[in-house]
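In response to reviewer comment 3 from the previous cycle, which asked for concrete evidence that the modeling workflow produces usable outputs, we include below a single protein chain processed end to end. The sequence was submitted unchanged, and the resulting structure tokens are shown without manual editing.
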Amino acid sequence: MVFRGGTVFDAVGRTTDTADVAVEDGVIVAVGSDLDGDVEVDCTGCGVLPGLFDCHVHLTMSDTDVFRVAQEPFSLQFYEGAVNMAATLAAGITTVRDAGGADLGMRVAQERGLIPGPRMQVSLNMLSQTGGHGDPWWPSTCVMDLLPPHPGRPPVVVDGPEEIRRKVREFVRAGADVIKVATSGGLVSSGAGPEIPHFRDDEIAMLVTEATAARRFVMAHAHGEGAKAAVRNGVRSIEHGNQLDDETLEEMARRRVWLVPTLASGLGLRQSVENGVTYPEHIMEKIEQAEANRSVRRAVEAGVPIAMGTDAPLYPHGQNLVELALLVEEGMTPADALHAATLSAAELMGLHETLGSIEPGKRADLVIVDGDPLRVEGLGERVRAVYQDGRAVGVRPDPSGPAQSATSAASFSNDASVSR
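The workflow returned the following structure tokens.
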């Protein structure tokens, strides 16, 4: 198969050029001019991107209404997750890192082709200290949890290095591909705000040591001093990362610790308030404080590696690419924003040898978009087709119409100007 005449985004050089992309047995075999193939996909006037990444999603969650979740049947979350996976894939996101919710079974179902969706690394849930961001205890003494434990998603509240050692091993046993921890409070939660650091150095160091022994990375929900402690003790990425001081950013750049800003989540919270959703006064104060103390622009200037993540569903699943324009607003070039969603994200997740760029030898995850791929504003609305391993898995024949599911290149050929 040859993708003919599109504007190809080179994630290595962060440039674009007109080229053909040849694919054989799900692998890119050549990028160049006048390439041959049994099937041709006419990409004239279109951009050709590597499969995109979202490094922070919650696929089993469709909103953050804890009262709704508490009244839903247990297994409904997995059916909602399947819908959210399909919407995410149709948006051009072919790989995700689930930051809490999805379990091993969901990843295996996608790998076996039982349900369409992006490739997944799963964290299962977020480790939390007592009274921390993942402790669902409320002042009323009610316990209401957005991500309640079940056999595939262990409980998360843990204190002290030895408890943490055991908990990391429990999560690895349950199938976690990455270990997530909250080293500070959060915005919309019952616990302390983002200015309060969680866990001590010996606890974070133990967590990283045990995760590393199991060949897992650590992602840290973190702001302020909690982020500084996480960086000091060897985490792979800081999630959200508001209120980061210059010392923390310098250390992140020096140690090559990623920032996953999830700007879309802030946009989603602002829009929900504008649409009449009400939050308690103390939560509104935390939201306003976080919005006033975003660190992305200074992180870009400091040379901190950035990877794209949205925190969907705080901004809806399937609208993930809005994050690209938000990154540009914070000082990134469009090419750098696309790099954050491709090769940088692949490196964060340890997948850069096989994914993240359009190069010979890499898996043929490709996204076809109408127009210039560097025009990131509204890019999600211009996704024309999505491929995983050279197979069409999402098709939008009419750029203004809804994405449709597809199971083969043949089904794509009926709608997308393919000649044989």
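The first helix runs from residue 66 to 70. We consider this sufficient to address the reviewer's concern, and the full set will be provided in the supplementary archive.
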